[in-house]
Amino acid sequence: MARRAKGASEINAGSMADIAFLLLIFFLVTTTMDVDTGLARKLPPMPEEEIEQDDSQIKAKNIYVVLINSNNQLLVENEFLDISQLRAGAKAFINNNGRDPESSDNPQKAIISLQNDRGTSYETYIQVQNELAAAYRELRDASSMKKFGLMYSDLSKRQQKEVRKEYPQKISEAEPKNIGK
Amino acid sequence: MSKFKKDNNKDTPGISTASLPDIVFMLLFFFMVTTVMRETTIMVKQSLPQASEIQKLEKKSLVSYIYIGSPVERMQTTYGTKARIQLNDAFATVDDIPQYITAERAARNEKEVPFMTTSIKVDKDTKMGIVTDVKQELRKANALKINYSTRKAVQ
Q1: In a domain, B4, yes or no
Q2: With a threshold of 0.80, does the pTM exceed it?
Q3: Residues in contact with B126: Cβ distance below 8 Å, sequence separation at least 6, in sequence order
Q4: Does domain A58-139+169-173 sit in CATH 3.30.420.270?
Q5: Span A69-87, pLDDT tens digits
Q6: What is the pLDDT of residues A35-57, one digit of tens each?
Q7: B127 vs A118: CB contact, 8 Å cut-off?
Q8: Does the distance separating the beta carbons of A24 and B132 come in below 8 Å?
Q9: Residue B61's CATH number
Q10: B36 contact residues in A (CB cutoff 8 A)
Q11: Where are the domains positioned within chain A?
């Protein structure tokens, strides 16, 4: 009551909205809502000299060799393959379970070995990585569907681990070499 | 009955705009909080390849970026068209990567170092040679968690 009696004039807040709008538009324009997405991979640690004979213990039939040359062509298990067929090929190899004696024993032992040339385009490389990841994802989905009736991504952490144990993603990248100029 | 008498003779009152500043402020704070200012000027071409099996990059504060690609057009007169590596705000060579990783690690809390990710943003027209070199350097620097930055494929 006393304050009103003093008659101190209030600050006009009418232009507050204008100022707020100005700031709002500034932030609207500068804001970018993009989320960074990508293919997550883990690089192997640099080899130490003691553990070099490790490779010889893996049977050749458990390795699915994928080569990409500088013309972005694929050589899979010594045969030319189109990138669209890679996913099915990798799935058949991983999920062989000893049916074909020339292919992998079981998914735990199956290793995909990827080698690329220095001249391979990055786009092709990512496509190949993507197809291989998709092959594993589809197998994991099928397995989790059968076991838990859910897609792999909807499973709990513990269940995911179980499925991952069944289908470990083993993509090995060889030390860089020059393949087929 | 006079209780329900309509007073048609009055004009419809205008909508009060008194709460407008509040609404605008609410929006303003939302955008202020979500906004991330770009810290680096990208000097290399960045048209990322597409992939479908993508994962979101979590914890942006723990991510260090490496950009690879040919310099953008206005830089091509000075730097040519050959693919280059950009770290922070400057062009770099493969040899600068260990130093960059060390600097990035020093800037973070020691506990968080194992969770640090390196996001490699490579233009899709780049050859793998330079990417392989970068990967080898990262292996040497023991920065093993990487992320090939890609866009979501539209199918």
Answers
A1: no
A2: no
A3: A121, A122, B68, B69, B70, B83
A4: yes
A5: 888 888 888 888 888 888 8
A6: 778 888 888 877 766 555 555 56
A7: yes
A8: no
A9: 3.30.420.270
A10: 31-32
A11: 58-139+169-173
